[in-house]
Write a structure and sequence with these properties.
458 residues; alpha/beta; 7-stranded mixed sheet; 6-stranded mixed sheet; 14 helices; flat
Length: 458
C-alpha cells in the first residue's frame, strides 16, 4: 500500500478549518481612496448576525437588500446588504457584504461598527486562506486570485483567470494521480520480492515513467511562460557614460523618462520604469555610466549600477559604435545582451549581428533596430507570448523541477535494476512535489508566507 506522506499540512483541503480560525473576520474589500462603491466583507459564524444588526432586518440568502446601515442607533450609510449562506460562498462560510458609498471615512465607520459587533480584523489574504482550507479552491487557485488582482498586462490577467478556473490545477492533479497509480503498482511489487522484476516489467513501469517525464517537461515549459507573465523580469541598462543608456530607456518605454544630454555622467542614481513588452511585464533600470571617478556621488552611482546588474534578470550592455575609443567588456554574464548604439553615425545595418547572436545594433535616435532588440530580449528570457499560458509562480516551477528530477532518478534506478523500494521512494518524492503546488502536501509555514502576501480583504 502507499505509505503516509510526510511534511504536509496534516489535512486535505475541505477536511477541517483550524480551530483558531473559527472566529468571524471582516475587512474593507475595496481599494483605499474615494469611489462610488465600497464593500465591507464579513465571514464566519457570526457574519449573518452582525450583518442583520447593521442593516436592521433579516438578510435573505443571495438577494440584494437596500437598507440604512446603522450601529447603536447612529445612521452610518445607505447601501446594499448581501448574504451568502455557507457553504455556497467564496470562503465556504457564511459571508455578508455591506456595499456602501466608497469614501475612506464611511468605510472605516462601517468597518468599526462591524468590529464592535463581534468580528475581528482579517489578516492579509485570510478570506482566500479560508476558501482554501474549506476546499472551495486549491492553493494554485488561491494564488491566481492574487495574480489576477496584480496583473500587469492583458495576457497576465487571462493567464490568471485560467489558473483561477482550475486549468493549471487540473493538469497537476492528473499528473499527480498518474504518479500515485504508478506508486501503487511499484509498492505492490515490494511485497513479492521473488517476482519483483517480472511485476515491474509487466506494469511497463519504465514506459510509464517516460510518459510522465514528457508530461512534466511540457507542463514546466507552459509554467515558465506563466511565471514570466505573473512575475515579469527586471532589466538593468549599463554602459560607459554617453553610450546612450538613458536614450535606450526612453526609446523602450516610449516616454522621456530620463534626462538625455551630451554631458557625461548625467545619470547618478538608478531610474526605474515599468512597462509591458508585448505582454511581458518589464522593469527597466537605467544606471550611472561605468567609469573611474573621484566624485563621491558618481562613485556611489557606479556602485549602485553594478549592484543593479547583479540583481537583474537581464543586462543590456550599451556600446557606443561612434566612439573613438573601443569599449571594453563591461559584463561577462550569460544574462547579458550587447546593444551597439548610434548606428545612425556609422555605416552598419540595424538588428542582430550574424556572427554574434548576443549582439543587436540599434539607433536610439531613430529607433532603427529597436524591434529586433525587443525580440532578442523575449528570446533570451524564453518568453513566447503564447495565448495558452496560465499564471504560475517560481515555487510552482521549482516544484515541477523537483518532480521531474525524481522521475528521472526513478528511470535511472529502474534501468540499473535497483530494488523496487528505491524506485518507489523516487515516485513518492515526485508525488510530494506535485502536491505542493495545489496545497495537498504544502507545509504550514509556506502556506502562511503565501497568504501573507495577499492584500487585506481578499
Amino acid at each position: 500500500m502507499v505509505r503516509d506522506e510526510e511534511g504536509g499540512n496534516g489535512r486535505r483541503p475541505g477536511e477541517e478549518l483550524a480551530l483558531s480560525d473559527t472566529d468571524t473576520i471582516a475587512a474593507v474589500a475595496t481599494p483605499p481612496g474615494q469611489g462610488g462603491v465600497g464593500i465591507v466583507r464579513i465571514s464566519g459564524p457570526m457574519a449573518l448576525k452582525i450583518g442583520e444588526s447593521i442593516v436592521g432586518e433579516p438578510l435573505p440568502p443571495r438577494q440584494a437588500l437596500h437598507a440604512n446601515f446603522t450601529h447603536q442607533g447612529e445612521l452610518l450609510d445607505d447601501g446594499v446588504g448581501l448574504y451568502f449562506m455557507a457553504p455556497n460562498s467564496f470562503t465556504g462560510e457564511d459571508v455578508v457584504e455591506l456595499q456602501g458609498h466608497g469614501g475612506p471615512v464611511v468605510m472605516q465607520m462601517l468597518l468599526n461598527a462591524v468590529l464592535a459587533s463581534g468580528a475581528r480584523l482579517a489578516r492579509p489574504g485570510e478570506f482566500s486562506e479560508r476558501a482554501f482550507l474549506n476546499g472551495q479552491i486549491d492553493l494554485a487557485q488561491a494564488e491566481a486570485v492574487a495574480d489576477l488582482i496584480a496583473s500587469a498586462s492583458t495576457q497576465a490577467a487571462r493567464g490568471a483567470v485560467r489558473s483561477l478556473s482550475g486549468e493549471f490545477s487540473l493538469l497537476i492533479n492528473q499528473l499527480d494521480a498518474d504518479v500515485l497509480k504508478l506508486r501503487v503498482h511499484v509498492e505492490a511489487a515490494i511485497d513479492f520480492p521473488d517476482e519483483e522484476v517480472e511485476l515491474l516489467a509487466q506494469g511497463r513501469v519504465g514506459e510509464q515513467i517516460e510518459v510522465l517525464i514528457s508530461a512534466v517537461q511540457a507542463l514546466t515549459q507552459r509554467g515558465r511562460q506563466g511565471a514570466l507573465l505573473t512575475q515579469g523580469i527586471s532589466i538593468a541598462i549599463i554602459g560607459a557614460p554617453n553610450a546612450g543608456k538613458s536614450s535606450l530607456l526612453n526609446r523602450l518605454s516610449g516616454e522621456e523618462a530620463a534626462i538625455v544630454t551630451d554631458i557625461p555622467g548625467t545619470t547618478r542614481d538608478l531610474l526605474k520604469v515599468d512597462l509591458v513588452l508585448d505582454g511581458l511585464p518589464v522593469r527597466l533600470v537605467d544606471t550611472a555610466g561605468l567609469r573611474d571617478s573621484t566624485d563621491p556621488v558618481e562613485v556611489e552611482g557606479v556602485r549602485r549600477a553594478r549592484l543593479a546588474a547583479e540583481q537583474a534578470d537581464l543586462i543590456l550592455e550599451v556600446w557606443d559604435l561612434a566612439a573613438a575609443q573601443v569599449n571594453t567588456v563591461l559584463s561577462s554574464s550569460e544574462r547579458t545582451l550587447r546593444v551597439e548604439n548610434k548606428i545612425d553615425l556609422v555605416d552598419v545595418p540595424p538588428g542582430p549581428v550574424k556572427d554574434s547572436p548576443s549582439t543587436v545594433r540599434v539607433s536610439c535616435l531613430t529607433g532603427d533596430g529597436i524591434e529586433a532588440l525587443k525580440g532578442a530580449i523575449k528570446h533570451r528570457v524564453g518568453f513566447t507570448g503564447e495565448g495558452s499560458a496560465f499564471s504560475a509562480r517560481q515555487r510552482h516551477i521549482e516544484a515541477l523541477n523537483a518532480a521531474l528530477s525524481a522521475l528521472e532518478n526513478a528511470a535511472q534506478r529502474l534501468e540499473a535494476n535497483a530494488a523496487a523500494e528505491v524506485i518507489a521512494e523516487e515516485l513518492r518524492l515526485a508525488h510530494l512535489a506535485l502536491g505542493e503546488i495545489t496545497g495537498e502536501t504544502t507545509p504550514d509555514d509556506l502556506l502562511g508566507s503565501i497568504f501573507a502576501t495577499f492584500c487585506i480583504g481578499k
